[in-house]
Amino acid sequence: MIRLKNISKKINSIKVNGMTLIELLLVLALIGILLSMAVPKLMPLIGRTKSLEAQMQLKHVLNLEKNYFYINSKYTNNLDDIGFEQSKLVTQDGKANYKIEIVEANNKAFVAKAVSVTDFDQDGQLNVWQINHEEEIKEITKD
User: Fold this and answer.
1) Which of 66, 102, 103, 117 might form a disulfide with 111, Cβ 3.0–4.6 angstroms?
2) CA angle 132–125–139, rounded 5-degree value
3) What are the backbone angles phi and psi of residue 3, rounded to the nearest 5°?
4) Distance CA 63, CA 69 (A)
């Protein structure tokens, strides 16, 4: 019995270093402040990263259109004719952020564009990229 009392006194006398609730809340508040400062600076980077998807898809359409032109001596305005399959969009539970479409096509030229289906920085504008038969790719509307 005496031995149990000694053990219980030893356990009670051991100090555990830790944080109080107030200290923990202060740390969480500081992390929140730092994140609120960092996120707006990261939004343009996120938009630029997502725009790479549009550029890659448009270059793919360009290559398919060139192949079609070599065979048929004209460009087409039908994505199915060149064998392009639109990936499932994020609005349809897919992964693609851009809808690809051919704006204009004739015997000498074509123009294709990629329009984002979501507003990346919540400013009310959708990102739009465009490419033509001369491989000129440009951002029409910035997001």
Assistant:
1) 103
2) 25
3) -65, -40
4) 10
Residue spans of alpha helices (H) in 83-141? none
Question: How big is the chain by its Cα radius of gyration, in Å?
Answer: 29
Position 115 scores a pLDDT of 96
pLDDT higher than threshold 90 for residue 109? yes
Query: What range defines the domain where residue 116 resides?
Result: 43-141
The gap from C-alpha 75 to its chain's centroid, in whole angstroms, comes to 31
Number of domains in the chain: 1
Would 64 be classed as within a structural domain? yes
Q: Is residue 5 domain-resident?
A: no
Q: Cβ neighbours of residue 121 under 8 Å, at least 6 residues apart?
A: 43, 44, 47, 143
Return d(Cα 129, Cα 127) in angstroms, integer: 7
Q: Is residue 95 part of a domain?
A: yes
Q: Which residues contact 87 (CB under 8 A, 6 or more apart)?
A: 94, 95, 96
Note the pLDDT of residue 79: 95
Q: How much is the pTM?
A: 0.70
